[in-house]
Design brief:
- There is one protein chain.
- By secondary structure, the chain is mainly alpha-helical.
- The protein has a single domain, classed as Arc Repressor Mutant, subunit A (Orthogonal Bundle).
- It has six helices and two strands.
- A two-stranded antiparallel sheet has the order 1-2.
- The longest helix is centred in the C-terminal third of the chain and has 19 residues.
Length: 136
């Protein structure tokens, strides 16, 4: 299962910021470090702010900081804010008739795997990634 481009960038931004969750990160720094076009990044930062993950600080030393603890930011919340969790309720083969006319053969075989992945996303925080040294 792939995440869309915006979700991937949201993960990259928030994971980078979680390296030191007390720092202010400028959009210029994030754009250069993550190689994300500035206009796209600004829209994403606005969306992440509206979702309550980060907040902007104005002024000479301004930037973006976490609005809440990284212990309270679950990966599923990030996905839900950016692209929604609907993909976890749909057929993994993107068979649009799967749920309407019965299940495809793939549906039951991988349903348990999809449920485990959803559970992992709902219980894993940015802090967990940082503590397990998954953040690079």
């Amino acid at each position: 299962m792939n995440f869309n481009k915006t979700t991937t960038y949201a993960f990259k931004v928030l994971i980078l910021m979680s390296h030191n969750d007390q720092l202010d990160y400028t959009s210029t720094y994030l754009s250069e470090k993550l190689n994300i076009q500035m206009q796209y990044l600004r829209r994403l930062l606005t969306d992440l702010s509206k979702a309550g993950f980060i907040q902007s600080k104005r002024g000479k030393n301004g930037g973006f900081v976490f609005a809440k603890s990284i212990k309270n930011i679950f990966l599923s919340d990030i996905i839900d804010a950016v692209e929604g969790l609907e993909k976890f309720n749909s057929c993994m083969l993107e068979n649009h008739d799967c749920n309407k006319e019965g299940k495809c053969s793939f549906h039951d075989a991988f349903g348990e795997i999809k449920n485990k992945m959803t559970d992992a996303l709902k219980t894993t925080t940015l802090f967990d990634l940082k503590e397990k040294s998954i953040i690079t």
